[in-house]
Each structure stands twice: as structure tokens, then as C-alpha cells.
Amino acid sequence: MAKRTSRRTTQETARSGPSFSQQLEQYLTFDRLIIGGSIIATILIVGVILLNSSSTDADPPAIVDPSVPQNYVRYPNAGGQHIDPDTADSLPANAYNSNPPTSGPHFPIPARCRVYDADSSLPDQAYIHSMEHGAVWISYRDLDDQDTIEKLEDIGRRFSNGVIVSYRPENDAKIAVAAWQNLLELDEFDEAQIMNFIALFRNNGPERVPCT
Fold first, then answer.
1. 163: β partners
2. Does CATH place domain 73-86+98-201 in 3.30.1560?
3. Does 155 score more than 90 pLDDT?
4. Which of 101, 104, 109 is nearest to 85 (CA)?
5. In this predicted model, what pLDDT tens digit does every residue of 18-43 receive, in sequence order?
6. Does 57 have pLDDT greater than 80?
7. In Å, how far are 8, 71, 194 from 181, measured between CA atoms?
8. The 73-74 sheet, strands edge to edge
9. Would you list the DSSP string of 142-167?
10. Whether the Cβ atoms of residue 72 and residue 184 lie closer than 8 Å to each other
11. Greatest pairwise CA separation for the chain in angstroms
12. β-pair partners for 185
């Protein structure tokens, strides 16, 4: 009889489901999963916010002045394929549809967003990738126009990220202000138009990756 009772007790215990301690352990494990998932979700949300808010309090506010003429031209997208830097010189003449380019084939690694002196300027394809990330690229044509160069470099240094200034002798105009698919050309320095352009297009590329 004792053996039958033991067998019956074992069967009843099995039918009754997990013990309280087992249920508690399952609950705590599930609870930890929820908490862990919430923490991961929070980290991801904060990361997205940091990526999209790449300006600092020291940067000029992105305010567009409607009284300032908007004389930029918008060009069709010439593509965004990555190319080997060694093949840049063999690109066809129609690879780009503006001067300087505002889209098109570019290097896999973007240029840093900063002020470049004439001796450290990079190939167009590095800047094109930066514009794809939302950078505004300001370039000047004339090395002997030191006054304009200093003014443009001063604008570049006002921003902690998202603005490039470089020398580019191939420009048609004295000053070119470029963003992805958009180009403003100026024959004289015009701070209001340049700042308006930056307010419109900085950190507003098809791939929103902070350019520092």
C-alpha cells in the first residue's frame, strides 16, 4: 500500500504542474527578459536621437530667413554608388550633372566635416559621400582672394559638424555651396544666402549620418 500511495502522490504532483518555486523562477526569468528588452529598447532610442540631433548648442540655429533669395539649383540624383578610389579618374564625363558634383559615384569613406586648407583638399568623391550623409560643402575657386577664403572658413568653423570648406579650382563660380542634389553658386560672398542654404540642407541628406 505504501508503494501505491507514493506512486499516486507522484502522479498527482505531476498533474498539478510546476511547484510554486518553479513558477516563481519562471516569472522572475520572464520579468528579467522584459526588463532587459526595455533597457535595450531605451538604448536604441537614445542612439537614434543622438544620431539625428547632431548639432550642439554652440552651432548657429537652423533658421531660414524667407526674405533672403534662394538662388540654388536642384539637380537630378546622379546615383550614389561606391567606387574604388583608384578608378575615379576613369569615370565617364557624364558621371556628374553639376560642377561641383552634388551626387553621383563616390568613395566608400566620406570626408571629415571641417575646414580644409588648399594643400589638404580631397577628391570630389570624398565630399560627395559626406553630402549623402547630410553635409554642406562650401568650396572656393580663387586662392588669391584671401578675404573671401577667410570669410568662408569663419562660417565653417561656426559649426561643430555638417559643414565642409575646401579649395576647388575647377569651380565655375567663385563660391559654390553644395548639398545632396542642390547647388548655390555665387560670384561674390553673400553670408545671408550661404547661411540660409546651410539651414535648409545641413544634416538633411538621404543618409542621415552625423558628419564630424
1. 136
2. no
3. yes
4. 109
5. 554 554 455 444 444 444 445 544 44
6. no
7. 80, 14, 16
8. 73-74, 182-186, 175-179, 136-140, 163-167
9. -TT-HHHHHHHHHHHHT-SSSEEEEE
10. yes
11. 110
12. 176
Q: How many CB atoms neighbour CB 198 within 10 A?
A: 25
Cell triple for 82: 561606391
Spatial distance between the Cα atoms of 207 and 132, rounded to a whole number of angstroms: 6
User: Pick from 102, 110, 101: which is nearest to 82 by CA?
Assistant: 110
Position 48 scores a pLDDT of: 40
* Residue 161 near residue 54, CB atoms below 8 Å: yes
**Structure pTM?**
0.74
Please tell me the least confidently modeled range out of 19-33, 72-86, 102-116, 167-181. Answer: 19-33
Which is nearest to 138 in space by CA: 175, 193, 113, 171? Answer: 175
Please name which of 144, 139, 146, 138 lies closest in space to residue 198, comparing C-alpha atoms: 138
Helix, strand, or coil (residue 61) = coil
Dist CA 53 CA 65 (whole Å) = 21
Give CA–CA dist 110/128, Å, rounded. 8
What is d(CA 152, CA 163) in angstroms, rounded to the nearest whole number? 11
Residue type, 20: F
